[in-house]
């Protein structure tokens, strides 16, 4: 399930318990293959999927993944919204095409 913000539950003084309803939101998956500019798979590259500015204030945290031997990557339990997918690090071995905009529907 996708991470979401939770609301505080207030139990008044003298009350022993409160009824709480918890709603779980199914998450989506973002996956693909990272490639170098020459088209070869990019193995062992650290990627970050970070939410657009407004989503970060709503409590949606960036997610990290590392590409596999053939450049494959996956992010699970992604909440609906707009994200940027980018290589993590000081230089960009994948070329000028990073970051990539990603939109996740619920």
Number of strands: 6
The number of distinct helices, counting runs of at least 4 residues, comes to: 1
Shape: elongated
Taken as a percent bin, the fraction of beta residues is 25-35%
Give an overview of the whole structure.
The chain is mostly beta strands. It is built from 1 helix and 6 strands; from the N terminus they run E-E-H-E-E-E-E. A 4-stranded antiparallel β-sheet has the order 3-2-5-6. The radius of gyration is 18 Å and the shape is elongated. It starts with 27 loop residues before the first strand and ends with a strand. The mean pLDDT is 78.
Offer a few descriptive terms.
four-stranded antiparallel β-sheet, 106 residues, mainly beta, two-stranded antiparallel sheet
In short:
The protein is built from one helix and six strands, in the order ββαββββ.
Would you spell out the secondary-structure blueprint of this structure?
Elements lengths: L27 E6 L12 E6 L1 H5 L5 E4 L5 E7 L2 E7 L12 E5 L2
């Amino acid at each position: 399930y996708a991470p979401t913000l939770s609301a505080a539950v207030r139990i008044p003084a003298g009350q022993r318990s409160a009824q709480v309803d918890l709603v779980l939101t199914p998450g989506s998956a973002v996956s693909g293959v990272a490639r170098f500019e020459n088209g070869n798979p990019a193995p062992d590259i650290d990627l970050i999927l970070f939410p657009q500015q407004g989503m970060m204030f709503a409590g949606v945290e960036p997610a990290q993944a590392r590409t596999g031997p053939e450049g494959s990557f996956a992010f699970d339990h992604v909440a609906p919204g707009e994200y940027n997918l980018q290589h993590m690090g000081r230089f960009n071995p994948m070329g000028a095409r990073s970051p990539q905009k990603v939109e996740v529907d619920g």
